Every structure is written in structure tokens, then in C-alpha cells.
Amino acid sequence: MSNKINRRAFLGMAAAGTAGIVLGDLMGLANNGRASSNEEVLKSVEALGEDPSTIIDFYGANQTGIVTPSQKFICMASFDVTTESVKDLQKLLRDWSKMSAEMMAVKPWDGSQKDTQFPPADTGEQVGLQPASLTITIGFGSGLFEKDGKDRFGLASRKPKSFTRMPKFHGDLIQEMATHGDIVVQACADDPMICFHVIRNLAKASRGSAHLRWQQAGQWGMKPGGTQRNLFGFKDGTNNPDINNIAFMNQNVWMDGTGDEPAWLKGGTFMVVRRVHMRIETWDQVAYKEQEIIIGRQKPSGAPMDGKLEFDQPNFGADPSGNVTAVDSHVRLSNPRTGEASERERILRRGFNFMNGLDPVGRVDAGLLFICFNRSIEKQFEPIQRRLTNPKMPDQMLAYTQTTGGGYYVVPPGAKDANSYIGEGLFN
Ligand SMILES: C=CC1=C(C)c2cc3[nH]c(cc4nc(cc5[nH]c(cc1n2)c(C)c5CCC(=O)O)C(CCC(=O)O)=C4C)c(C)c3C=C
Ligand SMILES: [Fe+2]
User: Where is the Dyp-type peroxidase C-terminal domain (predicted)?
Assistant: First the structure.
């Protein structure tokens, strides 16, 4: 990807004698003892399967963390804006954009500060760590445009027409304080400390203008390649659209700012977050065969029920009664494969497993932080979600899951350079 600089590219640039700002930062990494030798870096790259020195550029037409290959860790947080001043809101977004660009570039810093009469400028837990492909994605909830019928910041006319708060779907047990929020921040990296550091520092900088409403960390295993597994033990992401298929991303993910799409959202998208609790104690008592029927895929390979290999495509048309793949299995309901109609609906999933310890009555509090990006929530996510939660024939998996939080967010385009910021188009 063009906004990605990794060690191999860095070594190439160094050989060619081209020292840009990112290159300077990478040399800083080496100077600060983060990478004592190339061999050491390459060894850790091999162990993790990822290059820990990878820096992703914050600036560009689209925000990062959407079509970026998924990192291993996430920390997601949602904020309520507490200020009533539009100037404060603009300052917050400007400050957060500048900080995000700097955190993603991991400006070399040794943790020292000249004026010790003030709290540390940066909390410091990232000192000595690698950039780990950090991406930061910022989105807005509908409450930023209008809350309780009030046009708080004069932005109501900027709200995309169909954009609402996430409704309650059949089976949801929504915890208000784990749902919605005016601004969401998604920090993803191959190091969990790097993700937490982002949210902590943005929260610190938001004092007086916004406060944290909810926060959720998540992760995948350290598998070097291939499809990851969710906490039901199934491969998750197999039939995701290809992020390198630009034409498809332009059709299903990115807005072009025409028609019903406001011009300020050209290069933006919508993000849906569902914090889905998984009843894993109950699931773990379900027979192996039954688990495959519920999901509609084979457990070891991830292949469809009528296929052999993971990426074989199922043929539901040849199985109208669902003898091979149950008609109420998760995959058959989420994509009934009705040709062009289901192609137009396809969403880009980018979720993570989460493990929060035990709930107050001793059950494992774990699940999937389901995240998806789509150009239209109304025409893509919602029809899929409604099929999965249709009370007349719900997804069989619904008996083992319960959504407790999340939200709908609109993700503005990227900031083009250091003079612009995320969400700037809202105020023009
Ligand atoms: C409304 C959207 C979806 C929610 C919510 C959701 C939750 C959820 N999914 C799994 C596990 C799997 N999902 C798989 C495929 C899949 N899921 C959705 C949508 C939602 N899932 C879609 C659109 C698809 C792709 C269907 C297709 O095109 O074939 C799979 C199969 C492998 C894969 O393709 O990823 C699994 C497994 C869990 C555990 C979960 C909530 C806890
Ligand atoms: Fe799914």
C-alpha cells in the first residue's frame, strides 16, 4: 500500500540515500534502542509475521484502518462531546488529527520534558515501542449533528439524510453506556500498548471538550497469515471482499459525495460497531456437527458445507431446502447469494475478538467486536442485520450471541496534509 513504509522499503531508501521524515523517524527508532540491529528486527518480523517498524501515513484521501490489512489489536473508544462551543469542537478535531499523525509516525521521543512543572506532554508508555502499523480512524455519531432535537453546533444540515442512531434489533440487550457516542476513535496496531496509548492520550487532550463514554479492546491471535478464528473456533473473514479490489471498494465502501451523499463526505464511509457477547459456556456444550450447521461452514478448513477448500463458493441454489447448508445458518442468511442484489449489499468486516474477564455472575464476558464499513448502512448493513434477526426465522447463531453495545458512525475522508484535519469539511 502506498501509505505504508516498512523496513524493507526503509533499507532500500537508506541505500538510495533518500531521507524523508518517516525515514528520519525510523532512524530514530534504531537510535533509541528499539531496533539494535537489522537482524533483530527481521527476527521479530518473522516471529510475528508482521514488520513491527511499519509506519502508515495518517494523511490521504481516505482515513486509515478501513482498507488497511487488519492488525492484531484494537482499542476502540467513543466520546461524548461536552463543550457547547463549535470553536472548541474544531480545536479538538484539529488537535486530535495532529496528535494522530504524530502517534502514527511514532516521533522518536525519550520521555524527557524540559518544563517539569506541567504534567508530561505524552503519557509515555509507548516510549521504546515500535510503530506496529498503527492506524487511527475517527468517526462521528448522529448526536454530533443533532441531540435531543437540538442543533448543538449548527451542523444538523450537514448530517447525511439516512443517518440515525443505531436502532435496537431483535434480541439486542443494549447497555446505553456501551453504545452510541458523538465521536468514535478506532486505534489498531500490532501492539496492544500502542493502541491503548492512543486512546489514553486523545482522552487526556479532550479534557473540557469531551469525555469517554465507552471503550473496548480486542485482538486476534498472533497467526502470521491466513484467516483468523473467532471465539466459536471458526475462521472469520473468509468471504470478506478483497481490500485490493479498488473498483469494489469504490462501489461498496467509499462515498463519492454525489446523489444523497453530502459532498463533504467524498472519500468517507459509514462504520457499524456491534459489541456482540458470545455465550461461550453454552456454545462449548454444542456438538461439533451442530456447530457447523449453525455457522454453515466446516470448522477445520472454513470451507462451505458443499465445498472442500476455504475459498470455494457455496451453491445455495442447488440446495433449496437447506439439506447441506441450513437455510437459517449464519452464512446463508448473511449472504443468500442472490447475484447482483447480494453483491451490492456486501460490507467490509474488520472486527476483533474481545475478552473482558468475567461478568458479575461469573460468566465469561467475551465475544466479537463486530466492525464493518459500508457506503450505505440503510442499503447494506441493515438488510443483512434484519435477515439475521428476523423473529420469524432468526440466524441459528442468535441463540448463542447477544449484542450489548456499539453504534453507527459516519467516517469522514482523510486529512490531506498537516494543514487540514479530520472533519474539516463539516465546517466549510
Ligand atoms: C450484520 C452483520 C453481521 C454480524 C453482526 C455478524 C456477527 C458474527 N459473525 C460471526 C461469525 C461468522 N460470520 C461469517 C460470515 C459473515 N458474517 C456476516 C455478517 C455479520 N456477522 C457476513 C456478511 C458474512 C459473510 C457471508 C458470506 O458472504 O459468505 C462467518 C463465515 C466466514 C466468513 O466469511 O467470514 C463466520 C464464522 C460471529 C461469531 C458473529 C458474532 C458474534
Ligand atoms: Fe458473521
Answer: 227-415
In a domain, 254, yes or no: yes
Closest-lying ligand 1 atom to the alpha carbon of residue 231 = 39
Enter the pTM of the model.
0.91
Residue 235 CA: which ligand is closest?
1
Asked whether 401 lines ligand 1 (CB < 6 A), one says: yes
Q: Rounded to whole angstroms, how far apart are CA atoms 185 and 194?
A: 14
Residue 372, CA distances (Å) to 119, 240, 342, 380, 415 in order: 37, 10, 16, 10, 21
User: Which ligand neighbours the alpha carbon of 276 most closely?
Assistant: 1
Query: Rg of the chain over CA atoms, in angstroms?
Result: 22
Residue nearest to atom 19 of ligand 1 (CA): 334
Residue 186 lies in a domain: yes
Q: What is the pLDDT of residues 316-354, one digit of tens each?
A: 999 999 999 999 999 999 999 999 999 999 999 999 999
Segments forming the whole domain that contains residue 91: 73-110+119-427
Q: Ligand 2 centroid to 425 CA: how many Å?
A: 34
Residue 407: inside a domain: yes
Q: For residue range 63-117, what is the model confidence (pLDDT) as tens digits?
A: 999 999 999 999 999 999 999 999 999 999 999 999 999 999 987 678 889 999 9
Look at residue 5 and tell me if it is in a domain: no
Confirm or reject: Cβ of 334 under 6 Å from ligand 1.
Answer: yes
- Is the Cβ atom of 303 under 6 angstroms away from ligand 1? no
Segment (H or E) for 407:
strand 401-411
